[in-house]
Amino acid sequence: FEQLLINYCNEKLQRHFNRHLFEVEQELYANEGVDWSYITFNDNRPCLELIEGGGGQVGILNTLDDSWGGMGSASEKDVKFVAHLHKQFGGSAEGKTDPGHKNYVTPKFGKD
Questions:
Q1: Please, which residues bridge with residue 62 across strands?
Q2: pTM over 0.85
Q3: Do 100 and 92 meet the contact criterion of CB atoms below 8 Å apart?
Q4: 76, 84, 105, 110: which could form a disulfide with 72 (CB 3.0–4.6 Å)?
């Protein structure tokens, strides 16, 4: 859980940096007619949308909150959380018609 929050904070900070350094500044340059070379960058919005949710979609943090509610031991809740992640975001579940979230990769554990 701690590593998820660390990664989330890093992605959020990177998004803030990208937005203000690349998007806003380049838009300002274009509006002012400044001659410059456009800088391309990797946009991490899809990663943040997977973690946060948004646009009517549930995110990993919502799924974690839902999975940890109710009764059960910590290990039972962990199993429930991972099962919910696979069901919500994975694309290979039986009978599932949508491909899942394009940025979610179902991890393989033990006997998977």
A1: none
A2: no
A3: yes
A4: 76
